[in-house]
Amino acid sequence: MPDIASSTTNTVYVVDDDAGMLESTQWLLESVGLQVKAYSDGRQFLNDVHDSRPDCVVLDIRMPGLGGLNVQEELQKRDIDVPIIFVSGHADVPIVVRAFKSGAFDFIEKPFNEQLLLDSIQQAMQTPNAPESQVTVSRDAEALIRTLTRRERDVFLPLAQGYTSREIAEQLGVSVKTIDLYRARVMKRLGADRLPDVTGIGIAAGLLNPEGLRSG
Fold it and tell me: Would you call 207 exposed, middle or buried from its count of C-beta atoms within 10 A (0-12, 13-18, 19+)?
């Protein structure tokens, strides 16, 4: 694999209560030249993060004690602004929305593709965490949505809210096969490989209301 670390070694903090996942993720990141600090629980990570500033945090959502969203909230209270990539085997849309609305950089479902995680980390370390950057993301999301046809937009919003193809078909009075076709077209136009990406675009464009989301 190519070395994605810069001349100054980047440090990625990985927080996951799954020992096997923690070890394999650490090995993967170190294999491409990144410095890694690994933690098996959120409290341990928070106790240590004062002493050094990570370039990126790979954070599990569901952990005993202090979960990933609570860790994110605590970092914000401490004014520690760092890109967070959430990983989870349970990517319920309301959880994805809460993570993104609180400033998460990405949300990746387990088991994840190794290159997908590496690409996300590289992008996170190269993206400034500034209001100007957030405005750009919002404008980019709005521009992407404007490329959709009217019918594709009809499918996009409930898709981003977590509704299934069958549920969307019932809402729009068409067949599931038709919705599957439009769903594929929507994701292709948006450049989205995963459903959390679609949700993230909806959030960035200011189109999602957390109270109206479908829980998975």
Answer: middle
